[in-house]
Amino acid sequence: MPDDVEARSRAVLEQAWDDARGYCYPNRSVYPHQWLWDSCFHAIAWAALGDARGLAELRSALSGQLDNGFVPHMRFSGPTSPRGPLPDRSGFTQPPVYALAARELTRAGQPVDAALAGRIVRAFEHLWQQRRQDGLLVVLHPWETGCDDSPRWDSWMDGRRPWDRKHWRSFDRRWLAAATFGPEGDAVSSSLFTAAPSAFNGITAHGLRIAGELLGDSRLTAWADELGAAMEDLLWDDEQSLYVDRALTGGGPSCSLPTLDGVLGALGALDRGRAVRALDQLRDPQRFKAPHGLAYVPRTSPDYEPDAYWRGPAWPQLTYLAVQACRRWGLDDLAADVAREGRRAIHASGYAEYWNPETGQGCGAQPQTWAALACALT
Ligand code: GLC
Predict the structure, then answer these.
(1) In ligand 1, which atom is closest to the CA atom of 35?
(2) Would you give per-residue pLDDT tens digits along the chain (378 residues)?
(3) Contact (Cβ atoms closer than 8 angstroms) between residue 351 and residue 366
(4) What domain range includes position 33?
């Protein structure tokens, strides 16, 4: 790794670190709160840097956990618009990257203690017991996928074209209002939006497998297998060679639009042949392989907008997850290529929130702390 990638990654984390709270703000002015998967990715970056703040950040990410095991997608550090009934945190969750973070910390010599391991297990138990429908895990708002404005949600939005963010904002409020919350404040159902996304399920199955191994808990490994089998049954699209999302309340054809989520299903899938077919699209310039990293939407798709938030740009955290998916299936050359390109592109983007994969130009908040994953891309 060039020294400057390591030094820049460290600097990006340092300038956003809040010592009293024990976490990094993704960006102090644009994102001045704690986000669950962001903090897990920060923990991974801290681990790669050999910095003990990794464990502190993972502990902090899980410290907003409710008694029933639910982990909120945000903890608020000041006034902001509500995301459910809880005054200080969201009633929605985000992809469970915490087991992957725990493994990376352990590998870097920062093993999780029993209390933190217990939180991770309870978080998975909550998802498993409260969020399964037809054998798959469901989300109740696009926020829960972390891919807030993905084309995969377009069918929930009257399918109006061209897509615009103002229009989306009016829907995010409707979806919030359509959710019902349990006695502790976590979302339990929605009258408008319920989906079983391929990436969320893939990340969960991957996390269950990692946690099962790390903590010696065969029950979690069995859940990983069960979830992987449900994904193969219900989410594989043979025509596109991608995993697609499943709409359970609302939604429609946009669930099958090709996005990187369809490749990230390979994180949790069980069928090697299918996983490799999906992952091969990371090598294909007609699909996700762009001059500067991985496009979120295939480059030949009519929906591809390489500059527009969640409509085509490349993302540090998805690049990191794509590398993990390649590693899971032993595609080590592809993993190394994606990692090398991602590292270079993040550095060139100025450690931006996301970047234009055609030009390499940084977009969104700059710097954004998950860009420090550059130092973990190996
Ligand atoms: C945006 C992203 C989400 C991320 C958050 C903070 O809402 O869509 O994935 O967690 O910003 O970076």
Answers:
(1) 10
(2) 556 999 999 999 999 999 999 999 999 999 999 999 999 999 999 999 999 999 999 999 999 999 999 999 999 999 999 999 999 999 999 999 999 999 999 999 999 999 999 999 999 999 999 999 999 999 999 999 999 999 999 999 976 666 777 888 888 899 999 999 999 999 999 999 999 999 999 999 999 999 999 999 999 999 999 999 999 999 999 999 999 999 999 999 999 999 999 999 999 999 999 999 999 999 999 999 999 999 999 999 998 999 999 999 999 999 999 999 999 999 999 999 999 999 999 999 999 999 999 999 999 999 999 999 999 999
(3) yes
(4) 3-276
- 364, 368, 348, 253: which is closest to 308 by C-alpha? 364
Ligand 1 centroid to 218 CA: how many Å? 32
Kindly give the distance from the C-alpha atom of residue 271 to the centroid of ligand 1, in angstroms, as a whole number.
30
80 C-alpha vs ligand 1 centroid, how far in Å? 15
Find the 332 Cα to ligand 1 centroid distance in Å: 29
**Alpha-carbon gap, residue 357 to 312, rounded angstroms:** 8
Residue ranges of the alpha helices (H) in the chain?
Answer: 3-16, 36-48, 53-62, 98-107, 114-130, 165-178, 198-215, 218-234, 260-264, 272-279, 316-328, 332-348
Domain membership of residue 155 (yes or no) is yes
Residue 31 Cα: closest atom of ligand 1:
6
Question: Where residue 271 sits, what CATH number does that domain have?
Answer: 1.50.10.10
Of 281, 286, 295, whose CA–CA distance to 355 is shortest?
295
In a domain, residue 73? The reply is yes
Domain assignment present for residue 360? The answer is: no
**For ligand 1, what atom is nearest to the CA of residue 73?**
10
Counting the structural domains of the chain, the total is 1
Atom of ligand 1 nearest to the CA of 147: 8
Q: In 10 A of CB 231, how many CB atoms?
A: 29
Tell me, yes or no, whether 199 lies in a domain.
Answer: yes
Which residue's CA is the nearest one to ligand 1's atom 4? 146
Pocket of ligand 1 (CB under 6 A): 26, 31, 35, 37-38, 146, 148
Residue at 178: amino acid letter: A
Identify the residue whose C-alpha is closest to ligand 1 atom 3: 146
